[in-house]
Design goal:
heterodimer; A: mainly alpha; 3 domains; B: about 0% strand
Chain lengths: ~160, ~170
């Protein structure tokens, strides 16, 4: 240890966290190594400067409290009961989730239409049903009489009315 | 607010040099506390929660104002040169320093610290001064624990080298 340079050790941990064994090793080494002695002195000074900086107290200026209260009042106005900002802040999650739901429903509907339309093709041979579902009506021979036949069945046979 | 103002000023004061910056940071902290008071769930102390907000706000402001060194070693005052001359002897004897010495040291610390990049100052203040655990610093800064350790190592080295440079330049 006596021969090893201690510069790495100085930078690895805060100086105050060094163990006694490490400090004595540093002292041993710095006694024979001027370069490390200088580094150790600089590390000690750095530590001292940091502590001195931490001890500095910054006092608020006389107007600090007033400006802080003004800033808080501004914030209160922004967050007032009828402000758009507040309403938005409290409802944006709901609005976003509703919009997401609408998009999902729309997407599912489109997907459903895309996949189910061929299955829904009507395969009836009944001309009336074909007409109702609007399918291939041009090819269907559909006269007025045929429609009546389809709806009411064949007309009864004519019977003579006896007086 | 009155009760916690000194604590928040103390935290912000570690990261910023000018009073206007410190006040800006403290104001930001209290506004955050005001708007997020509902988030405090009573777990842990209120002061701990406030300290965390103050530290993260300071970190964000430092990052927002991120720029390279605010000062260089151009002109040390006579007092600062004397302080450098005497301090090594004082360190060796372990004598108590006077209040004036503290003030000179604080000014000199500002000069040295503000030649470092903001991240270095941040890490030195959190780890070497506040003794914050690496894990906590990693959470607050969003860095990984190994990155925090590497940054701390480099920050200590840069600070030490800056002080060495001062010592070389100080009149003997």
């Amino acid at each position: 240890m006596r021969e090893q340079h201690i510069i790495e050790m100085l930078d690895t941990r805060p100086l105050n966290d060094l163990r006694d064994a490490e400090v004595s090793a540093i002292n041993e080494h710095t006694a024979i190594c001027p370069r490390c002695r200088q580094a150790f002195q600089a590390a000690q000074l750095s530590n001292l400067l940091l502590r001195s900086r931490a001890e500095v107290k910054t006092d608020p200026s006389p107007f600090f409290r007033t400006s802080l209260m003004a800033a808080i009042r501004d914030e209160q106005v922004q967050l007032g009961p009828f402000s758009f900002f507040r309403i938005w802040k409290e409802t944006y999650r709901l609005i976003y989730s509703m919009a997401a739901l609408a998009v999902i429903i729309g997407g599912l509907t489109l997907w459903q239409l895309g996949t189910n339309t061929p299955n829904m093709r009507f395969s009836s041979t009944d001309p009336m049903e074909l007409l109702v579902y609007g399918m291939d009506s041009a090819s269907v021979d559909l006269s007025y009489g045929a429609v009546l036949m389809d709806l009411y069945g064949p007309p009864p046979e004519k019977t003579e009315i006896t007086k | 607010m009155r009760r916690y103002t000194p604590r928040v000023f103390q935290i912000a004061g570690r990261f910023f040099r000018r009073r206007s910056q410190v006040e800006e940071c403290v104001q930001e902290v209290f506004l955050k506390v005001y708007t997020r008071l509902g988030d405090y769930q009573g777990r842990g102390s209120f002061e701990g929660w406030l300290t965390r907000i103050a530290t993260t706000t300071s970190i964000n402001l430092i990052r927002h104002n991120k720029r390279r060194p605010e000062s260089t070693f151009t002109d040390l005052t006579t007092e600062e040169n004397e302080w450098l001359d005497n301090t090594l002897a004082i360190l060796a004897t372990g004598k108590e320093r006077s209040i004036e010495d503290h003030l000179v040291a604080a000014d000199l610390a500002d000069k040295v610290l503000f030649t470092l990049p903001p991240d270095d100052r941040l890490i030195l203040m959190l780890i070497d001064v506040d003794h914050a655990p690496i894990k906590e610093v990693a959470e607050m800064t969003g860095w990984s624990e190994s990155k925090v350790m590497v940054k701390a190592f480099r920050a200590r080295r840069r600070l030490r080298q800056a002080v060495e440079k001062l010592l070389k330049g100080a009149p003997k």
